[in-house]
Amino acid sequence: MSLTSRGGVDRRRSTATGTGTLAVLVLVGVGGSPGYTGWAEANTDPNSAAGWFLRLLAWPSWRFDSDRPMETLFTDGLRALLLVVLAAVLLYLLPGPQSAPAAGLLSQLFSGWGAYVFAAGFAALLSALLGAESSLFAAVQSAGTGAAYGFFAGWIIGVASLGGRA
User: Fold this and answer.
1) Would 127 be classed as within a structural domain?
2) Would residue 10 count as lying in a domain?
3) Could you tell me the CA-to-CA distances from 130 to 5, 49, 124 in Å, in that order?
4) What range defines the domain where residue 154 resides?
5) Structural contact between residues 112 and 160, judged by C-beta atoms closer than 8 angstroms
6) In this predicted model, what pLDDT tens digit does every residue of 8-56 receive, in sequence order?
């Protein structure tokens, strides 16, 4: 039984990358949308675990508000875009558990989760460095925030990448 398609690409690896990337698109598209961000800000309690988590999901916010400075809109949009692109690349580059002959569910979960943690940290770092008023200190702080977001929201991507086990 062959595990490769005609082009020689492992189908399980491609599927895991695809389902993980689709989950990233949904998470960033919905969680970062202005509607969700506004709802989470207005309707959740930041001092409760559930409220904190729902607000955290809005971290990759992207906006097109005209009352915000253009530099902030650029940085927010760049962060969301970089998160999607870097997550897709890292989901593809971390194929070990998905293509191993005896791939375990736990290793697949952690591979997708780890890819999202790294993607969020790098996206935050790069967007802060490319921002209007960038400093190394602000970029490192931003990377820490991004990695924390990736850690607490990345399990969703890890679970979605389990779809690659077909």
Assistant:
1) yes
2) no
3) 40, 32, 10
4) 18-62+69-164
5) yes
6) 455 545 577 888 999 999 999 999 999 999 999 999 999 999 999 999 9
